[in-house]
């Protein structure tokens, strides 16, 4: 009997859906899960795929409670294998950040450690009101291995990030919203609908325009303000001469909804 896939990939209109499908293991992240995430993004980005936004969600009570510790324990005896485990996870999460597609996470229940690192690499986050966020690595003598040590402080601030690392405590969805860790908090029964509706709405926007704004925002934050402003100047002229801008201006003048080709 073959094992069930760790990730289920589907589409809803122009929305590509990636669903973590290991609820019996709290959707923990393994090499197989990361490979499936990468393959899905590759497929969604292909020319002609029709995908204009991506939704990452999870089956069961919890979004993701971290790395698959059984797999970690099995790899620790081989340094090369454990290095690959860490580096591959880093590569896949960077892949999400670098994707031209907007990536939305819908989080319920526990979002911890590696699960938080996955969520941090997404662009927009919906949280169910019952969601809890944290990084419990220090509780077990571990350290973040997939970018959490860098992304957490950048999003919530250094002192808040260090507080969560040191104490391994959890924060609720409302505090996560207050800290800017998530964008929206909804009732648990409305999470799937609200996140998909959001994704569907942004699929009506210019794919090229969104890709450009995502690149400018993410690359700009990795350098100085001067570097970011220079990048914007270098890119904006070409963007303003695009077919999508022509369509957008014509739609504005004609008081109609634009239909973008990109």
Automatic annotation (TrEMBL):
Gene3D superfamilies: 2-enoyl-CoA Hydratase, Chain A, domain 1 (3.90.226.10). InterPro entries: ClpP/crotonase-like_dom_sf, Enoyl-CoA_hydra/iso. The lineage of its organism: Bacteria, Pseudomonadati, Pseudomonadota, Betaproteobacteria, Burkholderiales. This is Short chain enoyl-CoA hydratase. It comes from Extensimonas vulgaris. GO terms for molecular function: catalytic activity. One of its GO terms (biological process) is fatty acid beta-oxidation. Pfam families: ECH_1.
């Amino acid at each position: 009997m073959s094992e069930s896939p760790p990730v289920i990939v589907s589409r809803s209109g122009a929305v590509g859906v990636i669903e973590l499908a290991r609820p019996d293991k709290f959707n923990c992240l393994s090499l197989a899960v990361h490979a499936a995430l990468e393959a899905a993004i590759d497929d969604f980005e292909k020319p002609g795929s029709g995908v204009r936004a991506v939704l990452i969600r999870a089956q069961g009570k919890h979004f993701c409670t971290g790395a698959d510790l059984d797999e970690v324990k099995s790899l620790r005896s081989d340094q090369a294998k454990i290095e690959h485990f860490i580096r591959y996870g880093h590569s896949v999460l960077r892949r999400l950040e670098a994707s031209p597609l907007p990536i939305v996470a819908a989080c319920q229940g526990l979002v911890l450690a590696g699960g938080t690192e996955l969520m941090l690499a997404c662009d927009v986050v919906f949280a169910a009101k019952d969601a809890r966020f944290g990084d419990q690595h220090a509780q077990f003598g571990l350290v973040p291995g997939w970018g959490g040590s860098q992304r957490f402080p950048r999003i919530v601030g250094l002192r808040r990030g260090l507080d969560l690392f040191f104490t391994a405590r959890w924060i609720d969805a409302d505090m996560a919203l207050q800290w800017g860790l998530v964008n929206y908090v909804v009732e648990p029964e409305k999470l799937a609908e609200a996140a998909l509706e959001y994704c569907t709405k942004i699929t009506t926007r210019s794919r090229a325009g969104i890709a450009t704004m995502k690149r400018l925002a993410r690359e700009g934050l990795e350098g100085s303000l001067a570097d970011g402003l220079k990048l914007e100047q270098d890119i904006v002229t070409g963007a303003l001469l695009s077919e999508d801008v022509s369509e957008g201006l014509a739609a504005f003048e004609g008081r109609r909804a634009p239909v973008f080709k990109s």
